[in-house]
Amino acid sequence: MTDKKPFAWETAIAWKNKDRIVVRGYDVNELTGNISFGEHFHLVLRGELPTPEVGRMTEAIMVNMAEHAMSPSSATVRFATSGGAELNSAVAAGVAGIGRLHGTADRPAELFLAVAERAGRDGLSDAEAAAKVVAEMRERRERMPGFHHAQHIRDPRTARLLGLADELGVSGRHVAIARAMEEATDDVFGRRIWINGPGAMGCVGLDMGYEPLQLKALFIVCRSLSLCAHSIEEATREKGWRASSNSHMVQPLDLSMQGPDNYDGPADRSLS
């Protein structure tokens, strides 16, 4: 057999020994107190410190996307906590609830990249490619990730994110594609389908150099703050199980909602 070196985790992210911790070439103590968490996120994920504009925009996205009241992930973390899960386990359950239809900045980013690829492949302008993709998705009755929000209709986070991206000079081709797609919805749907918060995060993130999977990581990191808060509040403020009939409101697991009136399966039957 060929001699092999002993196993070691090979990584370009960081190293440590007894006396030092080094992240992407920087001593962690030099970074501490000198860069923001948004800048540190960029360094760890992308390998270099961001420009001031990208660092500020990354921070802005983290603040903008950190909390969204009750959503699939926060409801999941609360149910897990109500069952007695520890904080880390409850937050992991909430993160698992971030899927294709919730917190999906990566999916709109992939869509905007596909429009850009389509423009180059078919010799179209970005606006023409955007209009064609919107029309084709409508014809196939496909969801447009990054557009519309069932609760807000016109997501209040979008204008702030896009406006700040314009102000900081980080808006580029992918923001323009997202806006062109939104504009195309007027003709295709007969009404405006607005860019939502994750859609704004997706196009701005691409223009800052982030890849789709890195944008998903950005959402997970900032939303985990919210999930921690919801778990701690659930553990310290509410009764376990969320089923107490003594509560001042009907609880989601109350027996009153689990009786035969809400059952639509087979009628009572017997093995005999």
Automatic annotation (TrEMBL):
It comes from the Bacteria. GO terms for molecular function: citrate synthase activity; lyase activity. Its EC number is 2.3.3.16. GO terms for biological process: carbohydrate metabolic process; tricarboxylic acid cycle. GO terms for cellular component: cytosol. It is an enzyme of class 2 (transferase). Pathway: Carbohydrate metabolism; tricarboxylic acid cycle. InterPro entries: Citrate_synth-like_lrg_a-sub, Citrate_synth-like_sm_a-sub, Citrate_synthase, Citrate_synthase_sf. Residues 251-272 are annotated as: Disordered. The keyword Transferase applies. Transmembrane segments: none annotated. It holds the Pfam family Citrate_synt. Keywords: Lyase, Transferase. Belongs to the citrate synthase family. This is citrate synthase (unknown stereospecificity). It comes from Streptosporangium carneum.
